[in-house]
Amino acid sequence: MKYSLQSGGPIAVFDSGVGGISVLRELARLMPGEDYLYYGDSKHAPYGVKDTETVRTLTCGHARWLFDQGAKGLVVACNTATSAAVRTLREQYPYIPIVGIEPAVKPAAKSGEHPRVLVMATPMTIREEKFRRLVALYEKEADIFPLPCPGLMDFVERGDLDGEDLHKYLTELLYDYRDNAVDAVVLGCTHYPFARRQIGSVLGSHVRIFDGGEGTAREMQRRLAAAGLLRTEDRQGHVVFENSDGNDDKLALCRKLLMLDY
Ligand code: DGL
Known about the structure:
By secondary structure, the chain is an alpha/beta fold. The chain is built from 11 helices and 9 strands.
């Protein structure tokens, strides 16, 4: 079945849970007149510790549902789902603007004279071929240290952003990278920007922090413009949240995270 895309349709934003709201925020800043349909698959999260085929099947199923709702484009606001499924999605829907997110290694590697760059991401993102190719592009310009962070997204899924447990988890996880051991850190999972302040406080204020949200939003704007699908009227768009978790608390957390200052 071929979908007919309308400029008045919403932009779909997909993540394994609530993390993609860090990308939704950049999209809404850049294109405030657009409507957004955000879908989080919290029931099946975390994706980052699953096998690639499972994540691909889940992501393609949710993408199809989003297109059935009339979405005019899709942002896969999950590094893990992007590495597992974006190529398949583009093959299945070559005429729909589909934008994925990948760790912001490029700006971090170019942020200084041969900087030491820590890349925090899910185990799946780090083990995928897509990530190895990305690192190979910049390893002459920077020392790049990939760090799988199983468990970090769960704090964000619970809305546990200020607690002592998160601080303890990060202090242990980042133990070897404190005391001036790195110059930059890439938040290679869309959940992690919500823990930005805590990550910064463990690593030190001299460490620059990068994430791919803004670049992804710009790419979606370019793709929609090229397809003639951007809204042109002066209006305030709205956001609809859907989540496979089916619990009102999760939707309340989504709204809270969209407004959060981090
Ligand atoms: N938010 C997802 C990402 O950007 C991952 C979280 C998960 O493990 O499900 O990679």
